[in-house]
Structure formats: structure tokens, C-alpha cells
Amino acid sequence: DDALVIAGERFGSRLVMGTGGAPSLQVLEDALLASETEMTTVAMRRIDPAQTGSVLDVLRRHGIRVLPNTAGCFTAADAVLTARLAREALETNWVKLEVIADEHTLLPDPVELLEAAERLVDDGFVVLPYTNDDPVLAHRLEQVGCAAVMPLGAPIGSGLGIRNPHNIELIVERAGVPVVLDAGIGTASEAAQAMELGCSAVLLATAVTRAQRPAVMAQAMRDAVRAGRLARRAGRIPVRRYAQPSSPPV
Amino acid sequence: DDALVIAGERFGSRLVMGTGGAPSLQVLEDALLASETEMTTVAMRRIDPAQTGSVLDVLRRHGIRVLPNTAGCFTAADAVLTARLAREALETNWVKLEVIADEHTLLPDPVELLEAAERLVDDGFVVLPYTNDDPVLAHRLEQVGCAAVMPLGAPIGSGLGIRNPHNIELIVERAGVPVVLDAGIGTASEAAQAMELGCSAVLLATAVTRAQRPAVMAQAMRDAVRAGRLARRAGRIPVRRYAQPSSPPV
Amino acid sequence: DDALVIAGERFGSRLVMGTGGAPSLQVLEDALLASETEMTTVAMRRIDPAQTGSVLDVLRRHGIRVLPNTAGCFTAADAVLTARLAREALETNWVKLEVIADEHTLLPDPVELLEAAERLVDDGFVVLPYTNDDPVLAHRLEQVGCAAVMPLGAPIGSGLGIRNPHNIELIVERAGVPVVLDAGIGTASEAAQAMELGCSAVLLATAVTRAQRPAVMAQAMRDAVRAGRLARRAGRIPVRRYAQPSSPPV
Amino acid sequence: DDALVIAGERFGSRLVMGTGGAPSLQVLEDALLASETEMTTVAMRRIDPAQTGSVLDVLRRHGIRVLPNTAGCFTAADAVLTARLAREALETNWVKLEVIADEHTLLPDPVELLEAAERLVDDGFVVLPYTNDDPVLAHRLEQVGCAAVMPLGAPIGSGLGIRNPHNIELIVERAGVPVVLDAGIGTASEAAQAMELGCSAVLLATAVTRAQRPAVMAQAMRDAVRAGRLARRAGRIPVRRYAQPSSPPV
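ok -> C-alpha cells follow
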């Protein structure tokens, strides 16, 4: 058994999906099923919980846990309010916390993020913050009680992969909570790399929903996350500057 | 159906395994099974086809195709001779052609390699040459009739990954035969990357046999090759310098 | 004329030196002269302004501007106090602001740093903050009135170079004040790269003071910073995936 | 004194320039002077030695050594013939040997190159071959008597920089003759990097002649090559995964 555990909850899949960017609900549904994800993040700003035929319907139908997020919030106050609305509407105290600095970079605002995290933890939420790749901020977020930390690999939707693997390693080394690589992934090898660096899970949306064939990319990501996790556990060979023959023979 | 086809033969798995470096025959067997490979390369220098309890026994028992290689050969003449001995002993006209320049780098000798390839093709062999990542040499090898080209990612056993992805892309773009990434892979994400670059398959040994837990790494490589292949077929998102919100919402 | 201008002051050299790590005062003096730097940062914690035969003597003798820094401070309060002591002792209102999160990473604490910057600006200081490579924090620091922003390339003394060139570019694109690459540089090409990315200057210490031949590395850094600045101004050729002959001929 | 010595000749500058790609003879002249180069390569195919007002005039006027090259040759026979014509016309037995595989990649043909090199050495030439970055081929070229080896960083005119620094290091480690990085350089930091990897010189054309301001880029390259050479000689600090304070203080 190699389950992912966040705040006491167990997940068989280490791939968390987002729902943004899909061209249609059917495409999204196919991709979610292909990914075998067990938890999917949904922007509170975009959903009407009462509406049928929505993303929420799809998630309920397939037993996929909803993780509401605060996308579109620019201040701690706004994010806290949004999280509370989500808790009421969706009957979950889990929240993916996003506090964005500006529309241009979509990068997190470190000061507002930390403040929002602290307030939400105090308010009984299970907080999973989307953060930059700063090891110091990641540590502070854990210290104020976040249930996981979710550093970016690169800006949202950029597909640039993991710009600074060294920072991700530093975050993992010190973390006492799961580290979830969130944002920037463009292709499967990068999802595998995140796991090899020691992340506990990967969260992505655009890489799947905007691929030419979303359901196929969803399968790719599913396999890549498994591959990276297995490779981490297998203990890779050291890197050597020079060749090494595979002798002595068996 | 997305089978790998080499010289008219179909393979469901795109992971070719090598046998060198395993600490014991049992470890090797477990790793081969975990990898789900359908073709495995064996050094002619190291085997006695008549002997029971050998690598060949393991391969026969599990129906894994044997691909003899000419590891340890430094000249075209030596490689040609070794290939002929292999054909006689193992009743296969397939050969992984290795002509090494020196013991220190284990890098292929381009001149001797090309000459040996030409002679073996003329002699009716299905030739799969281990080559450097030079697009020109890869093209020459195809022109003389090789059934695949097998460029290295990095020196054998180094675990350095794919040192020059740009060259692998150039090779793939011009190739009319399968391109198999051979040598240098250290971990799963690199195997996925090889497939994303357009390789048709990955060949590796040390990364699995010398990992701390070989069978677990074999599973990782199996999943990574699948992931990379799926990602290639899925059509990844373009890389963008700036963030892109995942709106408009579904 | 291509002078660096910070807070209205002009500098002919775009290489700012630090003084830490030198094995002797003589080695430091030789390296400073070889570097042709015009501004050098000195840790307030380490100096006694009254003492003769000190680093300050060397700087005074050669007309190199002293930039006191707050190395060793872990809180905004501590940094503000240290900056004030420096102002009194050294008769300068310039300060390189460092607020470190911990001894292990020596990374800046974003929250304390921003608070200290704001207070020091209000107090009339010319503040040059050492920050991580987060474009959002860099922008905030400029907004509160810092005279430059000084993002790291990698952790202090690591010699890892610029881990995330993309972030440095994002910082430069939005900055209305000079961007000084500070920390992480190990060798000359990395200093040149910083300038090519659009930085206005480079600050380094360990790469010179702990090199095997500090004065030679100081010359290397001097030339590299010039080279990178010239290359930025020259307008480099675009990157192309394929070869391009240099014809048509002249 | 740190002169570059090739075949007994001494050069104060380690930057070798090419002449292709310049928009005018005047721009070329300005760039050559700004670069402070002492040797410049000229394509035999493009010049008429008898003509006045030519590239050769410029080189003669400034005392810059002419290094004829065999650009445009696709076979050993063609290259040998071209080299002989150059020797007669330009009264030099030095030749930059280029044997290209095709117009698309402009990559060297390893087999034809090696054969041409051998024949030209036998014929009394000082041969400087443009080669790929294969350590085995570089070694073979030295063994047949070449006076230097000139591996590429990336395809001609691509500006991709040094695609495989590891291979350049392997070449340098074994070389008994100067290694000159030739082709692929796009900007100054890459020229510095080539020298830091242990190359003895850098050869480039397009990066300067096609820059927006060629003479400024020529200065950048001049300084970058010096910087990289100095850094190599200075003995850089080791790379460390973690921060290191610059204490103990001076």
C-alpha cells in the first residue's frame, strides 16, 4: 500500500486534476475518468452548485472528491470569504487556497497567501495552498497549519515544466506535510520528474484539458505520476560522469 | 493498436531491456517480468547457449525474444564475427550492433560501426546499431539498411539522461525506421522524455538492474515508456512564456 | 556612456562586490582592485568602524563606496536596527537589506523583508533588498520604494548559477528600478548570463573570494559583466532549431 | 603570458572570427576590429583572391591571419581539392576543414571528414577540422595529425549555445591539441562557458555578423572569451547544494 494521505484522508491516486480549460463537459468527463483521479479542484467563481449538468454533477456521479479553490481572489479577505461560501455550498472544509497577485503572471501573493492560510486554518479549514517555489514560504505555510503545500513548477498554463527543481527538492526535504506540485506541467515526463523529486502528488489541468487529445494525455499523466512515484521508491542509480560497463555478467 | 514494428515484427511493449548489471539471476528475472518487456538484449561474450540456468533459460521460459549484442567488440571485423556466432548459436538473424571505441567512454566508433552495419546488412542480418547521437551517422546507418537506429542519451551506465534532446529530435524527424533511445537513462522521467521526443522505444539495463529495488524500477520504466508514448500521441500544449488562466470556464 | 544609476548615483562598473569569504585582507584588497568594482557590501555585524587595518580602510583607500548590509538579521526589527547603526557609523543612508529566514538556507524571509523595506524607506534609507526570485515580491519591494531589487540566482555561496532564468526575466520586464543579480553565481559565464537576461548589475562575493585564485576570478567577473552587458545591448541573434548557412557571402 | 599556440604559432586572442553573414564589408571590418581577433576564417568558395576591395583586403590591412575553410564541400575529395586551391591562392598551408553531410543540418560527415583530414595531413597541411561533439571522432582526428579539433556547440547559425557541455568536457580531457568551440554560439555567456569547459578558443561568425549591432557584439565576445579563460584559470568554487555563509569574517 502506497496511499497518499492528506489530513487523514487516503487517496489511491496521486494525480489531482483541475477542471479549467476543457472545451466541453463531455471532454472533461472523459479526461477525468481516463486520469483515474480521486480529487478534482473546481473554481468557486465558476460554479453554481444548484445547477444540474455541471462539473459538480460529473464529479458526484463518479465519486470524485471536490476540492473547491479560490481562483480569482487577489486578497486574503476575498479568499477567506470565497472559502467560506464554498464550505457552505459544497459541504467540505477542504480548500485549495489561491491568492493571486495579478492577472498577468497569476503568481501567488506571498503576504496575502500566508495571511489567508492562517485565518482559514484558525477557522477549521483543511488548507492546501497554491504557492510559489520559495522554500521559506512553503515552510511558513506548513507552520501555520496547512495540510499540504502546493508549489508551482512554472506559471499557470505555461507548460514550462519545473523551472527550479532545486527549490522543489529543498521544499520536500523540510516538509512534514505532503508536497503537491501544482502548475506549470506541460507533458508527462515533467509529472514523473515532480514525483522523482519527492513530491507526494501532482495537480494539473491545462496540460490535459488543452492537449489535442485530452483523454489520451490524461492517461499519460496517470502513468507518469505512477512511474515517477515508483522510481522515487526504487532508488535510482547515481549519476556518473563516465561510462560504466554493465559487467560483471550475471 | 499502437504496436512497435521493427523489421516486420510487432511488439506490444516499447521497453527493451538489457541484462547486464543484475546482482543475481533471480533479481534479473523479477525485473524482466516487472518490466513487461518483450525483447531483451544479451551480450554474446557473456553467455554459453548450451548452459542451463542461464539468462537464456529465463528468456525462453517467459517467451521474451533474445536480441544478441556485440558488446566488447572494438572493430568491425570482430563485431561481424560475433554477430555470426550469435546467429548460429541463438538461431536469430537479429543483432544489436555495438562497436566500441574504447573501454573508458564505451562510446561507439562511428567508422567501424558504419562498416560493420553495412557488412551485416549485406549478410542478411536485421541490424539494430547502438550509435552516438549524431543525426548524420544515424541517417547513414539507415541508408545502409539498418532496421532501426539506437542513439545514446548519454554514456552507458552514466545515468545522465538525455544530454542533447535537440539531436534526438533531429534524428527522429528524418528517420524512416524506428529510433530507440539506448544508454544513459537513469530514471523514469528520462524514459518518458525519450518517447515524447519521438523515439519509438527505449532500451535500458543499468537503470533497472543497479537500482536499489530493481523490480520496482522496472515497473517505473514500464509505466514511464507508456506515459511518454501516450503524451506524444496526445499532442501536448505549447510552451508559453506567460501564465494563461484556464478560463473561460466549462 | 552606459552608466549604472541607482538612486541618482552613477557607477561606471556594474559589478558590485561583497567582502565575505576572503582568506586575508590582502587577498581581498587584490581582488577588489582586480574587479574594478565601485561599490562593495560589508556586513555590519562583522566590522568595527573605528578599527584601523580593516576592510573599511581598504575601501576608503581605494575610493570604493561602502554598502553596509544587514547580514545575520532574522527579523524586520533587527534589520531596521542594524541599518540605523550602519547609517550612524558609516555616514551613509544606503543599505543592502538582508532578512534571512534561517541559517540553513540563508534564503530571505519574504514577509519580514517587505516589512523591513517599508520601514527603512519611510525612515529615509536608500534600500537595496536581497530577495528571492519571486516576481511578485520583487514588484512589491519596488512599490514600497526600494531603489533597486536584488534577486538571488541560487542560495548564497552555492555556486549553482541562475536556477530560474525565466523568473529573472519576468522581474526585469516589470521593474522600473535596477535589478541586481545577487547570490548564487559560481563562474564568469553565469555573471554574463545575468546581464544578458537584463539585469543592471551583478553582486557576488564567494565566487571570487573563495576561488583558487581570487584576483584572477575578479578579473574574470569584471570582463564577464561587461561582456553580458554589451551582448544585451548588441541584440543577439534569434535561436533557431535548424542550421543556417552564413551565406549569402559578403 | 597566456598565448594560444596552434601548430607552433602564437595568438594573443582566443577568439577566432568567421566572415559569413555580415550585411556589408564595412560592418564586417568594424566587427573584426572590435573583436580583436588575430585569425579569421574565409570560405574559399566565396572569395576571389585577386579582387581588391574584398574580405582578404580587410584582413591584410589589419594584419589578421587568413584561415581558409572548405565550406560547401560534401566529400573528402572535394575538400582536399579546395584546400589545395586555397594553399596556392593564399599561400598558407593552414586550413579549416569542413565536410558537410547535407544542406539541411550543415552537420559534418564523420567518415568523409576523417578521410579528408588524413589526406590533408599527409599532404603537409595544418588541419583544423570542424567536427561534431563526438569525443571518439575528436580523438581520431587528433590521432591522424590534426593541429586542433573544433567541435560544434550546436548547428551552424542556430544560436542554440552548447547543447552538450558534457561531451565538450570529455573532448577537452583527452585532447593533446587545442580544442576550439566552433558553431552554435549565440551570445556572450556561451562563449565564456566554452572557455570554462576548457576549450582553448572559440570560433564564431553569425552571432556577431547577424546581431543587431555587430561591432558591439564583437566586443562582447572578445570580453566573454577573456572572462571564460580567466575563470578557468582562476579555479572556480565547487557547486554546493546548500547555502554557505561567507563567514568566517575577514
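DSSP finds nine helices and ten strands in chain D.
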